[in-house]
Amino acid sequence: MPATSALRRTLAVIAALPLLTLAACGYGSDAKDDDTAKVAAGAKKIDGLDSVKIGYFGNLTHATALVGANKGFFQKELGATKASYATFNAGPSEIEALNSGSIDIGWIGPSPAINGYTKSKGTNLRIIGGSASGGVKLVVNPEKIKSLKDVKGKKIATPQLGNTQDVAFLNWISEQGWKVDAESGKGDVSVVRTDNKVTPDAYKSGSIDGAWVPEPTASKLVAEGGKVLLDEADLWPDKKFVITNIIVSQKFLKEHPKAVEAVLKASVEANKWINANPDEAKAAANKQLEADSGKALPANVLDPAWKSIQFTNDPLASTLNTEAEHAVKAGLLEDPLLDGIYDLTLLNKVLKAAGESTVDDAGLGVK
Questions:
Q1: Strands 190-193 and 105-108, how do they pair?
Q2: Exposed, middle or buried: residue 242 (CB in 10 Å: 0-12, 13-18, 19+)?
């Protein structure tokens, strides 16, 4: 069906987001390359590649990548092929980097993966694995908002128009029976799109009354006196929903499957180590955040943030489909065709070899 004029305007705004973001920050900041792992004597380059370029965010919900870089898991599996990294602040810029070849593989949230896939008509990326679930909270000023019904009429921040948390919050607003124009953020609740980096300052200044945000931003707000009013995990069956996936460009997957398999093997090993060594893993993730941004997280932010995230190889595909439905309901996306967005062949190969359970694509895999 043809889109309404309002929906066209909304989709145009979303389509422009990568360009706007790129104008602000380019393809992302360079992270320090992985020099913690010693390359074994006689190690060879995988698929003849000099390097594999990996992208991720400076969020604890991307800790599989943070730990994989810090502890040398990626470099170990890539042998003499160098693991190089770039960090991003927003999904659209990472998708643009993937499309341009500036990165080969990336850790990213579900909404930008869905948007990137649908806007390219299914030609640019595949989701090849899961990474994390949870780690998203609605944090509010307890003096202004004492219960969920008090959110009505208040100013609540989300990271970006159409991003994963923005879609989730708009869906929650709708379920309360309240009305908000998705594009402008105006209505029964004022949705204020604010970069996670400045959200704590906006909260301190009183320009927002709360925020629906991922970790560690949520715990930064709590450290400033905010109160967790809702954990998004409580809205999902079994308290699980995808917050971070692994994506790869289809071109790179086709041309360099051994390199992709090596990165997936490192990711599975990293998640296993994280779950077996939570305190050491938390410290490693924080060390990588400090290396990338110049600033580590204090314990009163790091500790509660870490507890709310589950690290998993399962992409939780059924929840991605639900999140896409939420974006359609909010008017941010036309009914998307997600068939083929997943290719879990290499991940399941790695999981079988490791003696672990394979994972499901909810019928959205390549045929």
A1: unpaired
A2: buried
315 Rama sector, left if φ>0, alpha if ψ -120 to 50, beta otherwise: alpha
Q: Cβ(18)–Cβ(92) under 8 Å?
A: yes
On whether the pTM is more than 0.90, the answer is no
Q: Looking at the predicted structure, is the pLDDT value of residue 253 above 90?
A: yes
- What average pLDDT does the segment 162-170 reach? 93
pLDDT, one tens digit per residue, over 68-102 is 999 999 999 999 999 999 999 888 899 999 999 99
Q: Specify the DSSP element, H or E, that contains 130.
A: strand 125-134
What are the residues whose beta carbons fall under 8 Å from the beta carbon of 8, sequence distance 6 or more? none
- For residue 56, give the H/E element and its range: strand 51-57
* Strand ranges of the sheet holding 242-249, from the earlier edge strand across to the other edge: 29-30, 82-88, 51-57, 105-108, 242-249, 125-134, 309-311
Residue 313: partners with Cβ closer than 8 Å, 6 or more residues away? 129, 130, 131, 267, 268, 271, 347, 351, 356, 359
Kindly report, residue by residue over 8-54, the tens digit of the pLDDT: 333 334 444 333 333 333 345 666 665 445 566 567 899 999 999 99
Q: Which residue is it, tokens 């305190």?
A: 279
Q: Which 3 state secondary structure label does DSSP give 168?
A: helix
